[in-house]
Input
Amino acid sequence: MLRALAILACAVLLTGCSAYRAPTLNVRKAAITNVTEEGVVIRFTLDAENTNGVELPLKKITYRLYLDGREVFKGIRSPEATLRRLGSQSITLPAVVTVDEQINKLQGQVRYRIEGTLSYITPGSVAQILFDAGVRRPTVGFSDRGTLVLGVEPSEQLDAGAIGVSDEDVDSP
Output
């Protein structure tokens, strides 16, 4: 009997926590920010939007980058942020792609794909306890596809608008 009540209480609590909408994530920009003989740094800028009337603490982002179908980077980042209520925020994800024989062959326009998930906490102390205990860790996914121009310095990119490069994205020597 006690076990049945505990299960029922958890079900009610989990149902109450699900009344919140997941944040949305959209990749706004992919930009090559640094090129060296050892590799390339690509920075992805995501727009995170919260349509709830309460803030959502962001916990962890895991993501993978593919160039021409080959996985070249996987990362885990802590956004260290809380998505304000009815608001949006930019999140930057770096990807460092080291040069190897396969990557060295990629020149010119290269197709990329980035995929990932963001874990966050729904409002309330019970939601925090369930998250910390690993019982309920809500996540939302994101992905984007596009092209980057490899083989030239970021400042020499021919079509900066196509890859989202602006002056602020290019590191100066």
The chain has one domain: 21-156. Residues 2-17 form the longest helix (16 residues). The first strand starts at residue 24 and ends at 35.
